[in-house]
Amino acid sequence: MGFGGDMRNQSTAILDHTTINGATGATQIYTAGFNPDAVAASSRYGSSNAIVADASFVRLKNVSLTWDVPVEKTTGVACQLSLQAQNLFTLTDFKGGDPEFTNGGYLPPLRTITGGIGLSF
């Protein structure tokens, strides 16, 4: 998760921050401009074990199915149907974009499903 005020997308987890009226949250209060205390707190946070997370996951990455359609041998025609899929699902409790790429700024791998028909005469 980037710093509040960065000119990039933020996780909704950043909304759980300490407020001026005293409500405490998982992240520190937002500041305007340069605040040495906020910089020091951010540095201490990044050096602590608060940023360590369980990034274990199970991912179904590649599936390929092919079926030779039964046709009469006398026709001289063969037909084959195929289906290929990538990144069908990921099971994880990791709070972030993708447990495989834990640095910020990475999108999860795209889900791709492709089908085909092969005919030979």
Question: Would you write up a description of this structure?
Answer:
The protein folds into 2 domains: 12-51, no CATH class; 57-120, no CATH class. It is built from 1 helix and 3 strands. The protein is 10% helix and 31% strand. The radius of gyration is 25 Å and the shape is rod-shaped. By secondary structure, the chain is mainly beta. A 3-stranded antiparallel β-sheet has the order 1-2-3, with no helix packed on it. Keywords: Receptor. This is TonB-dependent receptor.
Per DSSP E runs of 2 or more residues, the count of β-strands stands at 3
Q: Compute the average pLDDT.
A: 80
Shape: rod-shaped
Strand order of the largest sheet: 1-2-3
Largest sheet: 3 strands, antiparallel
Task: Please state the CA-atom Rg, rounded to the nearest Å.
Answer: 25 Å
Low-confidence runs of at least 5 consecutive residues: none
Order of helices and strands: HEEE
Tally of contiguous helical segments? 1
Q: Roughly how many Å apart are the termini?
A: 57 Å
Strand content: 25-35%
Keywords: Receptor
Protein name: TonB-dependent receptor
